[in-house]
Amino acid sequence: MRGAKKTKFPHYLCNTAIIIVLTLSVTFNPLLTWEVNSAEKPKNNTTLKEQTNHVSQPTKLRQYNLLLNDDSNNEPFGVWIYAYYNDSETYTPVKLTFIQFIYTLFHPYYGIPYSLDVDNDGNDDVHGNIHFYLTSFSSPGFSPGMKISLDTEVKENIDTQAELTLALDVHIPAFLSGGYISLKTGYYSPQNETIPKKITTGFSFTFDFLTNSKRMFQLDVVPQLQETGNLTGLFSYSTFTSTGTKKINKTFLVDFTPATELHITTIPKQLKVHYEFGESSGVKTKIRFQTIEGTQTKMMHSFTINPLPAYMSFDLTLLGEHTFLYESDTSYDVTYTLESTQNNTIVKLELTGLPTRVKADWGLNVKILPLSASAYVDLNMSDNLDKVALYFNNSKKPFMEIKDFPKRLYLKGYMDSHLKGYITAYKYSGTPTQLTTVFSLSKWEVTGVLTVKDGYLSVTWGIPFKGSKHAILGFDTNDKEMLGLDIQVYDTENNTEILKVGFDAVATQDLTLSWDVNGLGNITNLRWSGRITKLLNLKISVYYNSNYFDIAGSWILGENGSLVVQLNKKVDFTIANITSDNFKLQGHLSLYSDRKLKIEWKLGETGFFTVYTFSKPVGEQLNVEFGYGQKQNNTHRYGFKLLATDFLNVTRTIQWDTENGFVPRIWILGDKPLPNGWTAKLLWNYKWYEVIK
């Protein structure tokens, strides 16, 4: 017709039409040969006193058997309500016509009213509404599915401290198979806990023929906000053949201590889970989540949150996207535990002062030809996490504890089939992060404390493998003091500290150590490049023959530096031979016990070199050589040599000045002249100068 307006067909009607077609194919095909059961009386009314004596924990309660076995006589269409109260059990079919069933599928807000007499006194004790309808998940894309929910209100004419289980069971004809799907949702309130006056539980799933077999489940528990008792949410998904044989069963149990609003969405094949908490009372809450496949109980996951915030949501995907996103309206503490069916705590993770926002991404890439693997982790938080503690197998002490976990952390790593690889890391928190780990071996307890400051570091390695005899190890902090370390070995039988090694800070610049391993396992061709620019407050303490042997030292290498050595036993001490194109340090000390030696230097146009012995004779022999700067003719640009055969109680400073690149003046400062047996030489612009006594 001319002038008539064209009417656009709304896209949401397209989606509705698709759902209708799918539903008709799912529903009507199996319904052609049977009638709806509209019985009103309970099918069972039995007592379970003999089973009650065996119940000790919620995860072992016989009420959970409802979610593994039903009493519907394998009817592919229908609705039932299960109730257990004070040893009385009923399994009641809900009167429902076929037209009501179809109407309900397409009307989410239409509820089928019900009422139950759970104590057999002739009066209704529980009433509410039943919902089951087609729905669509918002992600991924268009994901049609089914949802059932049970609204429950308990009257005051029953004992509100008694044990009560209520559950809804809905059977839906399966797509083209002639079988059916059983969906169940409900809750369990244990003895001596207040039965919720009002509560809604819901269970949803997606049809897998449109989601590439990545079936999604959603669990909902919404108690009345004033309720604070403990309860367990019950959810089950089962598929049956046309002969009534069970093919698949997944049961989800969620324990609340106390109850709170919670919505869980999970895609098991992607190891994806999303938790969202609604309004809560702000008290400490423990939530335990477990899955039963068939009749086998899998591991149980628990969260203890203190206090539960008014809003919290987190989304975890272990496969596919590899993401974790968490948001909350306030900071709080949380404890996560992974438990076995024997009540053993396999893993416990404590998080103190969780930030309000956490975003993490990670990835893994494996190549076959040539074989190699690379991975990364990118963490970004709104603030530092106060403390992380990790426990294994019911241990009292944490295996690992991290204080001031950084709000910004990036890790990247690579390794190939020849065992060559690298790890790079960037960290920012504004404060040092302290990582403590403890492990035991027989009577030995080893504790390691690693302190990490802000900055960048990298570790590279190559290990002799197959035909290769060459090895390499590199460590670079970009010349920043990034790491501190303390290691303690403790004898728990004798209550004795056997070994302690540590330092406050280390800085390196392109430090690389390489060597070859011959056929006899001997190390040859040892090479050193780069440098350790700082090593502060080195401490070594060894317990031997009922005595401690201690070494304490520090050095800062470069144009300005220092070296401190302190012992409590007489010893010959050899300084490691550190040699590269730009740096050299080697030497030997023969010292008395309980003595301390300090060497300081400054190299430049004006500079000094000072030796302190702190008013006590140090030892018998000193031999130290230091070189710095690019080598020419195997000689560094700057440096010194210091020899002494009678290393006495002195404080000596060698000071110099330069003119036109030469050293015309050298001063020796101290409390006494340079004693006999001492030799001092200064290296300047590749030329050695002997200090005259």
What key attributes describe this structure?
mainly beta, 693 residues, disordered N terminus, 39-stranded antiparallel sheet
Describe the 3D structure.
The protein is mainly beta and 693 residues long. Among the domains are: 8-259, no CATH class; 563-690, no CATH class. Helix content is 4%, strand content 58%. It contains 3 helices and 45 strands. The protein has a 39-stranded antiparallel β-sheet that branches. It has a 6-stranded antiparallel β-sheet with strand order 36-37-40-41-44-45, with no helix packed on it. A hairpin with a 5-residue loop joins strand 32 (496-517) and strand 33. The longest helix has 17 residues, at 11-27. The radius of gyration is 37 Å and the shape is elongated. The relative contact order is 0.05.
Helix and strand composition category: mainly beta
Unreliable parts: 1-63
Radius of gyration: 37 Å
User: Which band does the percent of strand residues land in?
Assistant: over 45%
Tally of DSSP β-strands: 45
Mean pLDDT: 76
Give a short account of the largest sheet.
Answer: 39 strands, antiparallel
C-alpha geometry: elongated
Proportion of helical residues: under 10%
Distance between the termini: 119 Å
Give the count of helical stretches.
3
